Amino acid sequence: MTVVRTIPPLVTEYRVTDTPRYGRTVSGYGGAIPTRYMIRYAGRWHRVLMMQYGNGGSAYIRKAGADLFIDTDTEYALAAL
Asked: What pLDDT sits at residue 1?
């Protein structure tokens, strides 16, 4: 399996929204848990999702049916919001 990451220059904006109600589980674990963050990647807004199966999770977006994991620069920018 190859891990594909977002390309930092294609991430142009960030925003914080209300956390959506869909996709949340009672346990808090799962493969597509929506977060309150959105990024504009390659001209379109995408919801940042979390893959959470333990104490640590992986942030990613879905673009054209593929999962793109968030690059480190973008993760730091989101953490600063």
From this structure: 66
